[in-house]
Amino acid sequence: MRTPELPFFVYGTLRPGAYNHDRFLLGRTAAEEEAELPGAVLHDGPGYPYVVPGAGRVLGALMTAAPGAYGELLTVLDRVELPAGYRRTARDVLRTRDGALVRAWVYEAAPGAALGARIGSGDWFNRVPGAPRTP
Fold it and tell me: Transmembrane region positions (predicted)?
């Protein structure tokens, strides 16, 4: 079965300005837009966050692959995220600029992931007052 070419919703170390963005996404995206994931809760993890379904919202960015780069981007993100305790699921994400709901891939916590404390703000960059974007 062919994987649909959906954009990716990133909410932690892959967000623009965070330390893994340039390492894994730079040059592979055509658009990066602010977005939020409704119906989700953000938890701290071992140096990176986890999303789980729940009553809340998570702030992040919607990443659209550059022309011809989708397969490479999907492979890179799956290699980074799946072994780290995530599963890739299709979810509706709210694009901030126009309020449109966009279907996107979200890497959520897989069963058994080591969830830390809930991040009440839903924003990895604002998990602790004064926390750096590059932990």
Answer: none
pTM over 0.90: yes
Q: Is 129 helix (H, G, I), strand (E, B) or coil?
A: coil
What 8-state DSSP symbol labels residue 124?
G
CA distance linking residue 2 with residue 49, whole number of Å: 29
Q: Is residue 108 part of a domain?
A: yes
The parent domain of residue 114 ranges over 8-122
User: Which residue is it, tokens 């070419």?
Assistant: 5
pLDDT in tens, 77-111: 999 999 999 999 999 999 999 999 999 999 999 99
Q: Is residue 60 a part of any domain in this protein? A: yes
- Cα of 21 vs its chain's centroid, Å: 11
pLDDT cut 90: percent of the chain above it: 85
For the domain that residue 26 is a member of, what is the CATH number? 3.10.490.10
